[in-house]
Amino acid sequence: MLLFDPIYLLFIAPPLLLGLFAQWRVKSTFASMSQVQARMSGAQAARQMLDSAGLHQVGVEQVPGHLSDHYDPRAKVLRLSPEVYGGRSMAALGVACHEAGHAFQDAKGYAPLIIRNMAVPAANFGSNIGVTLATIGLFLSYQIPSVGNLLLLAGIVLFAGVVFFQVVNLPVEFDASARARRHLVSANLIAANEEHFVAKVLNAAALTYVAGTLQAIMTLAYFIFRLMGDRR
C-alpha cells in the first residue's frame, strides 16, 4: 500500500534522499580521514579518554564489521570495529572518542541518554508492530473504515515511540561528539589545527541521525494525514 501511494512518496522521498546522501558522506568522509595520520590508535585514544575521567572499569574491545562501533551500557564496554580499534587516523580517533563520550554520559547520568535507553523497547516495538498495524489499517480503511481507522490509530500511537526515540537520540549523539572533540584537543591527542579533520567525520555521522529522525517524523506525519483525511 505505502510503496505505491504517491502521497506517501511525497512525505518520505526528501528524508530518504537525505539519508542516502548521509550514508554516502559518512563512508566517503571516513575513507578520506582514514588517510590523515594520527599519533595513536583509536583504541588508545578511547582508553586515555576513559581513564582521564576515572572510567577504568569501562573496557575497550574489538568487534568485527565496518563502522560497527558502539558503547554497550549494560556491559560497560566500548566495542570498536577493526579500522577504528587499530587505526591510527583522525577518522579512528573521532569515532573511538565519540563512543567514549557515550560512556561519559552513562557515568554522569546524562538525562537524554537515560531517557533514550528507556525508550528503546517502545521504539523497537513501534518500528515493527506499529508500522504493521498502520499499514493494515490503511488497507482496511477502504474496506471496513471503522476497523481500519482503529488499527491505523493504534499504529500511529505505537510508531510515535519511534519518533520520540529518534528525537531524544539527537542531543545524545551531538553531545557525545562534542565531548570527543573537546577531549582530543584539551588532552593534546591532536593539535588544535587538526580538530577540523575529526569534525568532518563526526558531522557526517550526525547527518545520518538527522536523516533518520526526519524519516521517522515524516512517516508518522503521513499516517496522521491519512487518518485525518479518512475522518474528513
UniProtKB/TrEMBL annotation:
Keyword Ribonucleoprotein: no
Keyword Membrane: yes
Organism lineage: Bacteria, Pseudomonadati, Planctomycetota, Planctomycetia, Pirellulales
Keyword terms: Membrane, Transmembrane, Transmembrane helix
Record-linked InterPro entries: Zn_peptidase_2
Organism: Stieleria neptunia
Annotated protein name in UniProt: Neutral zinc metallopeptidase
TM regions (residue ranges): 6-24, 125-144, 150-172, 206-225
